[in-house]
UniProtKB/TrEMBL annotation:
It holds the Pfam family SWIM. This is SWIM zinc finger family protein. PROSITE patterns: ZF_SWIM. It comes from the Bacteria. The keyword Zinc-finger applies. Residues 52-85 form the SWIM-type domain. Keywords: Metal-binding, Zinc, Zinc-finger. GO terms for molecular function: zinc ion binding. InterPro entries: Znf_SWIM. It comes from Chitinophaga silvisoli.
Length: 431
Protein backbone atom coordinates (compact mmCIF):
# COMPACT_ATOMS: atom_id res chain seq x y z
CA UNK A 1 0.00 0.00 0.00
CA UNK A 2 1.32 3.45 -0.92
CA UNK A 3 1.25 5.56 2.24
CA UNK A 4 1.52 9.31 1.88
CA UNK A 5 -0.08 11.86 4.17
CA UNK A 6 -2.69 12.72 1.54
CA UNK A 7 -3.66 9.09 1.01
CA UNK A 8 -3.89 8.34 4.74
CA UNK A 9 -6.11 11.37 5.26
CA UNK A 10 -8.32 10.05 2.47
CA UNK A 11 -8.86 6.80 4.40
CA UNK A 12 -10.28 8.57 7.47
CA UNK A 13 -14.01 7.85 7.93
CA UNK A 14 -14.82 11.42 9.04
CA UNK A 15 -13.32 14.79 9.97
CA UNK A 16 -13.25 13.99 13.69
CA UNK A 17 -11.17 10.86 13.10
CA UNK A 18 -8.92 12.80 10.74
CA UNK A 19 -8.21 15.48 13.36
CA UNK A 20 -7.77 13.04 16.26
CA UNK A 21 -5.52 10.79 14.18
CA UNK A 22 -3.29 13.70 13.19
CA UNK A 23 -2.78 14.48 16.89
CA UNK A 24 -1.48 10.93 17.42
CA UNK A 25 1.06 11.05 14.58
CA UNK A 26 3.94 11.70 16.98
CA UNK A 27 6.61 9.24 18.23
CA UNK A 28 5.93 10.28 21.83
CA UNK A 29 2.38 8.92 21.63
CA UNK A 30 3.57 5.39 20.90
CA UNK A 31 5.06 2.97 23.42
CA UNK A 32 6.26 0.74 20.59
CA UNK A 33 5.91 0.56 16.84
CA UNK A 34 7.17 -1.52 13.94
CA UNK A 35 6.69 -2.41 10.30
CA UNK A 36 7.53 -5.02 7.70
CA UNK A 37 6.35 -5.81 4.18
CA UNK A 38 3.01 -7.15 5.47
CA UNK A 39 1.92 -4.88 8.29
CA UNK A 40 2.33 -1.86 10.53
CA UNK A 41 1.80 -2.15 14.26
CA UNK A 42 2.10 -0.05 17.36
CA UNK A 43 1.01 0.39 20.96
CA UNK A 44 -0.52 3.76 21.78
CA UNK A 45 -0.86 4.82 25.39
CA UNK A 46 -4.42 5.80 26.20
CA UNK A 47 -6.25 6.61 29.41
CA UNK A 48 -6.20 3.00 30.65
CA UNK A 49 -3.40 0.98 32.20
CA UNK A 50 -2.70 -0.94 28.99
CA UNK A 51 -1.80 0.71 25.68
CA UNK A 52 -4.08 0.22 22.68
CA UNK A 53 -2.74 -2.34 20.22
CA UNK A 54 -3.07 -1.02 16.67
CA UNK A 55 -2.31 -2.98 13.51
CA UNK A 56 -2.62 -2.39 9.77
CA UNK A 57 -2.56 -5.04 7.05
CA UNK A 58 -0.75 -3.10 4.32
CA UNK A 59 -1.21 -5.81 1.69
CA UNK A 60 -5.01 -6.05 1.80
CA UNK A 61 -5.54 -2.71 3.58
CA UNK A 62 -7.34 -3.75 6.76
CA UNK A 63 -7.28 -2.42 10.32
CA UNK A 64 -7.64 -3.66 13.86
CA UNK A 65 -7.30 -1.87 17.19
CA UNK A 66 -8.05 -2.83 20.78
CA UNK A 67 -9.68 0.56 21.43
CA UNK A 68 -13.51 0.70 21.80
CA UNK A 69 -14.04 2.75 18.62
CA UNK A 70 -16.16 1.17 15.86
CA UNK A 71 -14.69 3.34 13.14
CA UNK A 72 -12.42 1.83 10.50
CA UNK A 73 -9.74 3.00 10.61
CA UNK A 74 -9.92 4.47 14.11
CA UNK A 75 -7.87 7.49 15.18
CA UNK A 76 -5.04 5.21 16.33
CA UNK A 77 -4.83 3.54 12.93
CA UNK A 78 -4.78 6.93 11.21
CA UNK A 79 -2.14 8.23 13.61
CA UNK A 80 0.07 5.17 13.10
CA UNK A 81 -0.13 5.41 9.30
CA UNK A 82 0.51 9.16 9.33
CA UNK A 83 3.56 8.66 11.53
CA UNK A 84 4.83 5.98 9.15
CA UNK A 85 4.26 8.25 6.14
CA UNK A 86 6.20 11.08 7.82
CA UNK A 87 8.93 9.17 9.66
CA UNK A 88 9.28 5.75 8.07
CA UNK A 89 12.88 5.42 9.27
CA UNK A 90 11.75 5.38 12.93
CA UNK A 91 9.93 2.07 12.41
CA UNK A 92 13.04 -0.01 13.07
CA UNK A 93 11.40 -3.12 14.53
CA UNK A 94 10.51 -5.54 11.71
CA UNK A 95 9.59 -8.60 13.79
CA UNK A 96 5.83 -8.53 14.50
CA UNK A 97 4.67 -9.44 18.01
CA UNK A 98 2.36 -12.42 18.51
CA UNK A 99 -0.83 -10.30 18.53
CA UNK A 100 0.01 -9.07 15.02
CA UNK A 101 1.08 -12.44 13.61
CA UNK A 102 -2.02 -14.13 15.03
CA UNK A 103 -4.31 -11.53 13.46
CA UNK A 104 -2.72 -11.90 10.02
CA UNK A 105 -2.88 -15.70 10.26
CA UNK A 106 -6.56 -15.66 11.21
CA UNK A 107 -7.37 -13.37 8.28
CA UNK A 108 -5.65 -15.79 5.92
CA UNK A 109 -7.51 -18.76 7.44
CA UNK A 110 -10.88 -17.03 7.04
CA UNK A 111 -10.20 -16.53 3.33
CA UNK A 112 -9.49 -20.25 2.94
CA UNK A 113 -12.59 -21.25 4.94
CA UNK A 114 -14.77 -18.95 2.86
CA UNK A 115 -13.50 -20.37 -0.42
CA UNK A 116 -13.92 -23.99 0.79
CA UNK A 117 -17.50 -23.58 2.04
CA UNK A 118 -19.80 -25.92 0.04
CA UNK A 119 -22.76 -24.50 -1.87
CA UNK A 120 -26.22 -26.07 -1.60
CA UNK A 121 -27.29 -25.70 -5.22
CA UNK A 122 -30.85 -26.96 -4.65
CA UNK A 123 -31.52 -24.45 -1.88
CA UNK A 124 -29.92 -21.73 -3.98
CA UNK A 125 -32.20 -22.54 -6.93
CA UNK A 126 -35.30 -22.44 -4.71
CA UNK A 127 -34.33 -19.05 -3.29
CA UNK A 128 -33.77 -17.70 -6.80
CA UNK A 129 -37.15 -18.96 -7.99
CA UNK A 130 -38.91 -17.39 -5.01
CA UNK A 131 -37.17 -14.09 -5.60
CA UNK A 132 -38.00 -14.06 -9.30
CA UNK A 133 -41.68 -14.46 -8.42
CA UNK A 134 -41.47 -11.57 -5.95
CA UNK A 135 -39.85 -9.39 -8.60
CA UNK A 136 -42.50 -10.36 -11.16
CA UNK A 137 -45.30 -9.42 -8.75
CA UNK A 138 -43.60 -6.12 -7.99
CA UNK A 139 -43.18 -5.33 -11.68
CA UNK A 140 -46.89 -5.95 -12.31
CA UNK A 141 -47.75 -3.42 -9.62
CA UNK A 142 -45.15 -0.94 -10.89
CA UNK A 143 -46.50 -1.08 -14.45
CA UNK A 144 -50.03 -0.29 -13.24
CA UNK A 145 -48.65 2.63 -11.22
CA UNK A 146 -46.79 4.04 -14.25
CA UNK A 147 -49.82 3.63 -16.49
CA UNK A 148 -51.85 5.67 -14.00
CA UNK A 149 -49.24 8.45 -14.20
CA UNK A 150 -49.42 8.53 -18.01
CA UNK A 151 -53.22 8.27 -18.05
CA UNK A 152 -53.68 11.15 -15.60
CA UNK A 153 -51.11 13.42 -17.25
CA UNK A 154 -48.24 15.43 -15.79
CA UNK A 155 -50.10 18.53 -14.64
CA UNK A 156 -50.54 17.36 -11.05
CA UNK A 157 -47.22 15.51 -10.75
CA UNK A 158 -45.33 18.37 -8.99
CA UNK A 159 -48.00 18.38 -6.27
CA UNK A 160 -47.38 14.76 -5.33
CA UNK A 161 -45.88 14.46 -1.87
CA UNK A 162 -42.76 12.51 -0.97
CA UNK A 163 -44.88 9.62 0.28
CA UNK A 164 -46.24 9.03 -3.23
CA UNK A 165 -42.79 8.12 -4.53
CA UNK A 166 -41.45 6.53 -1.36
CA UNK A 167 -44.39 4.15 -1.00
CA UNK A 168 -43.76 2.68 -4.45
CA UNK A 169 -40.00 2.61 -3.86
CA UNK A 170 -40.53 0.64 -0.65
CA UNK A 171 -42.86 -1.70 -2.50
CA UNK A 172 -40.00 -2.42 -4.91
CA UNK A 173 -37.69 -3.07 -1.96
CA UNK A 174 -40.23 -5.55 -0.59
CA UNK A 175 -40.26 -7.17 -4.04
CA UNK A 176 -36.46 -7.50 -3.81
CA UNK A 177 -36.00 -5.16 -6.79
CA UNK A 178 -33.72 -2.57 -5.20
CA UNK A 179 -32.62 -1.23 -8.58
CA UNK A 180 -36.19 -0.35 -9.51
CA UNK A 181 -36.63 1.25 -6.08
CA UNK A 182 -33.75 3.60 -6.82
CA UNK A 183 -35.23 4.50 -10.21
CA UNK A 184 -38.60 5.31 -8.63
CA UNK A 185 -36.91 7.52 -6.04
CA UNK A 186 -35.09 9.31 -8.88
CA UNK A 187 -38.50 10.15 -10.37
CA UNK A 188 -39.49 11.85 -7.13
CA UNK A 189 -36.20 13.75 -7.04
CA UNK A 190 -36.99 15.55 -10.32
CA UNK A 191 -36.55 19.30 -9.94
CA UNK A 192 -40.16 20.31 -10.58
CA UNK A 193 -39.24 24.00 -10.25
CA UNK A 194 -36.90 23.98 -13.25
CA UNK A 195 -38.05 24.86 -16.74
CA UNK A 196 -38.59 21.77 -18.85
CA UNK A 197 -38.78 19.36 -15.91
CA UNK A 198 -41.28 17.31 -17.90
CA UNK A 199 -38.53 16.16 -20.27
CA UNK A 200 -36.25 14.81 -17.55
CA UNK A 201 -39.23 13.24 -15.75
CA UNK A 202 -40.42 11.42 -18.87
CA UNK A 203 -36.85 10.38 -19.65
CA UNK A 204 -36.60 8.66 -16.26
CA UNK A 205 -40.07 7.13 -16.64
CA UNK A 206 -39.04 5.73 -20.02
CA UNK A 207 -35.84 4.38 -18.49
CA UNK A 208 -37.86 2.37 -15.97
CA UNK A 209 -40.20 1.13 -18.69
CA UNK A 210 -37.34 -0.04 -20.92
CA UNK A 211 -35.63 -1.87 -18.07
CA UNK A 212 -38.86 -3.61 -17.04
CA UNK A 213 -39.80 -4.59 -20.59
CA UNK A 214 -36.29 -5.78 -21.33
CA UNK A 215 -36.20 -7.88 -18.17
CA UNK A 216 -39.59 -9.52 -18.77
CA UNK A 217 -38.50 -10.48 -22.31
CA UNK A 218 -34.87 -11.24 -21.49
CA UNK A 219 -35.06 -14.84 -22.75
CA UNK A 220 -34.79 -13.46 -26.30
CA UNK A 221 -31.70 -11.35 -25.54
CA UNK A 222 -27.97 -12.01 -25.55
CA UNK A 223 -26.42 -13.16 -22.27
CA UNK A 224 -24.49 -9.91 -21.52
CA UNK A 225 -27.66 -7.85 -22.01
CA UNK A 226 -29.64 -10.25 -19.81
CA UNK A 227 -27.08 -9.84 -17.03
CA UNK A 228 -27.09 -6.05 -17.38
CA UNK A 229 -30.88 -5.90 -17.09
CA UNK A 230 -30.85 -8.21 -14.07
CA UNK A 231 -28.31 -5.93 -12.43
CA UNK A 232 -30.48 -2.89 -13.15
CA UNK A 233 -33.43 -4.66 -11.52
CA UNK A 234 -31.35 -5.39 -8.43
CA UNK A 235 -30.06 -8.94 -8.81
CA UNK A 236 -26.50 -9.52 -7.64
CA UNK A 237 -23.85 -11.74 -9.18
CA UNK A 238 -21.44 -14.16 -7.54
CA UNK A 239 -18.32 -12.06 -7.14
CA UNK A 240 -16.15 -15.01 -6.15
CA UNK A 241 -17.05 -16.68 -9.45
CA UNK A 242 -16.24 -13.47 -11.30
CA UNK A 243 -12.81 -13.36 -9.68
CA UNK A 244 -12.01 -16.69 -11.30
CA UNK A 245 -12.28 -15.07 -14.72
CA UNK A 246 -9.44 -13.34 -16.50
CA UNK A 247 -9.60 -9.58 -16.09
CA UNK A 248 -7.69 -6.57 -17.35
CA UNK A 249 -4.34 -5.80 -15.76
CA UNK A 250 -3.51 -2.12 -15.72
CA UNK A 251 -2.66 0.89 -13.61
CA UNK A 252 -6.17 1.94 -12.57
CA UNK A 253 -6.47 5.62 -11.72
CA UNK A 254 -8.88 6.21 -8.83
CA UNK A 255 -10.53 9.39 -10.09
CA UNK A 256 -13.13 9.93 -7.37
CA UNK A 257 -15.10 8.47 -4.49
CA UNK A 258 -18.79 9.11 -3.89
CA UNK A 259 -20.43 7.98 -0.65
CA UNK A 260 -24.15 7.62 0.00
CA UNK A 261 -25.96 6.40 3.11
CA UNK A 262 -29.41 4.84 3.27
CA UNK A 263 -30.53 3.91 6.76
CA UNK A 264 -27.59 1.80 8.08
CA UNK A 265 -26.07 0.89 4.72
CA UNK A 266 -23.17 2.89 3.32
CA UNK A 267 -22.38 2.63 -0.39
CA UNK A 268 -19.03 3.74 -1.77
CA UNK A 269 -18.72 4.36 -5.51
CA UNK A 270 -15.20 4.52 -6.92
CA UNK A 271 -14.64 5.74 -10.47
CA UNK A 272 -11.54 4.27 -12.12
CA UNK A 273 -9.76 4.69 -15.45
CA UNK A 274 -7.15 2.36 -16.97
CA UNK A 275 -3.92 4.12 -17.89
CA UNK A 276 -3.14 1.77 -20.79
CA UNK A 277 -6.49 0.12 -21.57
CA UNK A 278 -8.24 3.51 -21.46
CA UNK A 279 -11.33 1.79 -20.06
CA UNK A 280 -13.60 3.24 -17.40
CA UNK A 281 -14.71 1.24 -14.39
CA UNK A 282 -17.04 1.56 -11.42
CA UNK A 283 -16.19 -0.33 -8.23
CA UNK A 284 -18.93 -0.52 -5.58
CA UNK A 285 -18.34 -1.36 -1.93
CA UNK A 286 -20.98 -1.74 0.76
CA UNK A 287 -20.83 -1.92 4.52
CA UNK A 288 -23.13 -1.51 7.48
CA UNK A 289 -22.55 1.54 9.67
CA UNK A 290 -19.96 1.02 12.43
CA UNK A 291 -19.09 -2.44 11.13
CA UNK A 292 -15.96 -3.74 9.43
CA UNK A 293 -15.05 -1.87 6.29
CA UNK A 294 -14.72 -3.67 2.93
CA UNK A 295 -11.76 -5.98 2.54
CA UNK A 296 -9.96 -3.60 0.21
CA UNK A 297 -9.88 0.13 0.89
CA UNK A 298 -9.42 2.33 -2.14
CA UNK A 299 -7.94 5.80 -1.87
CA UNK A 300 -8.99 8.49 -4.38
CA UNK A 301 -6.11 10.26 -6.07
CA UNK A 302 -3.82 7.24 -6.42
CA UNK A 303 -3.54 4.39 -8.90
CA UNK A 304 -4.13 0.69 -8.25
CA UNK A 305 -1.67 -1.63 -9.94
CA UNK A 306 -3.84 -4.69 -10.37
CA UNK A 307 -6.45 -6.65 -12.27
CA UNK A 308 -10.13 -5.76 -12.69
CA UNK A 309 -12.87 -8.13 -13.80
CA UNK A 310 -15.98 -6.58 -15.34
CA UNK A 311 -19.53 -7.70 -14.69
CA UNK A 312 -21.18 -9.03 -17.89
CA UNK A 313 -22.71 -6.18 -19.91
CA UNK A 314 -22.93 -4.99 -23.53
CA UNK A 315 -21.01 -1.91 -22.34
CA UNK A 316 -18.99 -3.09 -19.32
CA UNK A 317 -18.58 -0.57 -16.52
CA UNK A 318 -19.01 -2.11 -13.08
CA UNK A 319 -16.04 -4.21 -12.01
CA UNK A 320 -14.44 -5.94 -9.05
CA UNK A 321 -10.80 -5.90 -8.01
CA UNK A 322 -8.82 -9.12 -7.96
CA UNK A 323 -6.39 -9.33 -5.05
CA UNK A 324 -3.75 -8.44 -4.23
CA UNK A 325 -3.24 -4.93 -5.53
CA UNK A 326 -0.54 -2.36 -4.94
CA UNK A 327 -0.91 1.41 -4.86
CA UNK A 328 1.28 3.71 -6.93
CA UNK A 329 1.42 7.44 -7.57
CA UNK A 330 -1.24 8.56 -10.01
CA UNK A 331 0.26 9.37 -13.42
CA UNK A 332 -1.10 11.85 -15.93
CA UNK A 333 -2.74 10.12 -18.86
CA UNK A 334 -3.73 11.07 -22.37
CA UNK A 335 -7.50 11.28 -22.64
CA UNK A 336 -9.98 12.26 -25.31
CA UNK A 337 -9.14 15.37 -27.30
CA UNK A 338 -12.45 17.17 -26.85
CA UNK A 339 -16.22 17.05 -26.84
CA UNK A 340 -16.43 15.68 -30.38
CA UNK A 341 -14.76 12.46 -29.24
CA UNK A 342 -16.85 12.33 -26.06
CA UNK A 343 -20.14 12.60 -27.96
CA UNK A 344 -18.98 10.04 -30.54
CA UNK A 345 -18.22 7.61 -27.72
CA UNK A 346 -21.59 8.31 -26.10
CA UNK A 347 -23.40 7.67 -29.39
CA UNK A 348 -21.69 4.31 -29.78
CA UNK A 349 -22.63 3.35 -26.21
CA UNK A 350 -26.26 4.40 -26.75
CA UNK A 351 -26.52 2.16 -29.80
CA UNK A 352 -25.48 -0.82 -27.69
CA UNK A 353 -27.40 0.02 -24.49
CA UNK A 354 -30.07 2.78 -24.53
CA UNK A 355 -30.52 2.46 -20.75
CA UNK A 356 -27.13 3.12 -19.23
CA UNK A 357 -25.44 4.86 -16.35
CA UNK A 358 -23.10 7.81 -16.38
CA UNK A 359 -19.41 7.01 -16.79
CA UNK A 360 -16.09 8.81 -16.41
CA UNK A 361 -13.94 10.21 -19.18
CA UNK A 362 -10.61 11.98 -19.23
CA UNK A 363 -10.67 14.96 -21.58
CA UNK A 364 -7.75 17.17 -22.51
CA UNK A 365 -7.59 20.93 -22.18
CA UNK A 366 -10.97 21.91 -20.73
CA UNK A 367 -11.61 25.39 -19.38
CA UNK A 368 -14.54 26.41 -17.15
CA UNK A 369 -16.32 29.46 -18.59
CA UNK A 370 -19.56 31.30 -17.88
CA UNK A 371 -22.03 32.19 -20.61
CA UNK A 372 -25.59 33.49 -20.19
CA UNK A 373 -25.39 32.96 -16.42
CA UNK A 374 -24.54 29.28 -16.89
CA UNK A 375 -21.26 27.43 -16.40
CA UNK A 376 -19.76 25.47 -19.28
CA UNK A 377 -16.63 23.46 -20.06
CA UNK A 378 -14.87 24.67 -23.21
CA UNK A 379 -12.48 22.42 -25.14
CA UNK A 380 -9.53 23.45 -27.29
CA UNK A 381 -11.78 23.75 -30.36
CA UNK A 382 -14.07 26.22 -28.53
CA UNK A 383 -16.87 23.68 -28.22
CA UNK A 384 -19.00 24.07 -25.09
CA UNK A 385 -20.65 21.49 -22.86
CA UNK A 386 -22.87 22.56 -19.94
CA UNK A 387 -21.81 21.68 -16.42
CA UNK A 388 -24.25 19.42 -14.60
CA UNK A 389 -26.91 21.50 -12.86
CA UNK A 390 -26.07 22.16 -9.24
CA UNK A 391 -22.40 21.19 -9.55
CA UNK A 392 -21.12 22.02 -6.03
CA UNK A 393 -17.39 22.52 -6.66
CA UNK A 394 -17.42 25.25 -9.30
CA UNK A 395 -15.43 27.73 -7.21
CA UNK A 396 -12.80 25.16 -6.35
CA UNK A 397 -12.54 24.31 -10.04
CA UNK A 398 -12.18 27.98 -10.99
CA UNK A 399 -9.45 28.48 -8.38
CA UNK A 400 -7.56 25.46 -9.70
CA UNK A 401 -7.94 26.48 -13.34
CA UNK A 402 -7.24 30.20 -12.98
CA UNK A 403 -8.80 30.63 -16.42
CA UNK A 404 -6.38 28.17 -18.04
CA UNK A 405 -7.23 24.81 -19.62
CA UNK A 406 -6.74 21.63 -17.59
CA UNK A 407 -6.82 17.94 -18.35
CA UNK A 408 -9.90 16.82 -16.44
CA UNK A 409 -11.63 13.67 -15.28
CA UNK A 410 -15.36 14.17 -15.83
CA UNK A 411 -18.44 12.09 -15.06
CA UNK A 412 -21.74 12.10 -16.90
CA UNK A 413 -23.61 11.09 -20.01
CA UNK A 414 -25.21 12.71 -23.05
CA UNK A 415 -25.33 16.47 -22.29
CA UNK A 416 -24.58 16.63 -18.55
CA UNK A 417 -21.09 16.33 -17.03
CA UNK A 418 -19.35 17.20 -13.80
CA UNK A 419 -15.59 17.37 -13.14
CA UNK A 420 -14.23 14.82 -10.67
CA UNK A 421 -10.66 16.07 -10.64
CA UNK A 422 -7.98 17.70 -12.75
CA UNK A 423 -4.24 17.58 -13.32
CA UNK A 424 -2.44 20.69 -12.12
CA UNK A 425 1.34 21.06 -12.32
CA UNK A 426 1.66 17.35 -12.99
CA UNK A 427 -0.39 16.10 -10.03
CA UNK A 428 -4.03 15.04 -9.83
CA UNK A 429 -6.28 17.21 -7.66
CA UNK A 430 -9.63 15.92 -6.43
CA UNK A 431 -12.62 18.25 -6.72
Amino acid sequence: MLLTEEHVIGLAPDDASRKAGSALASPGKWVSKGANTDALWGECQGSGSKPYQTQVDIINVAFKCSCPSRKFPCKHGIGLMLLYARQKDTFTDNTPPAWVSDWLSKRAEKKVEKSDKPVDENAQAKRLQARQQKVADGITELMLWMKDIVRNGLLQIPEKGDAYWENMARRMVDAQASGLAGMVRALGETNFYSEGWQLSFLDQLLRIYLVVQGYTQSADLDEPLQQELRSLIGFTQNQEALKQQTGIKDSWLVLSKQTTEEENLTTERYWLYGQHSRQSALVLQFYVRNQTRPEVLITPGIALQGELVYFPSPIPLRAIIKYPVSNISLPEVTGLEGWTQVTATETALFEQMPVRSERPYIVQQLTPVQHNLQWWLKDREERLMPLKAGYPNIWKLLALSGGKPLNMAILGKEQQYEPLGAWHNGSYKLL
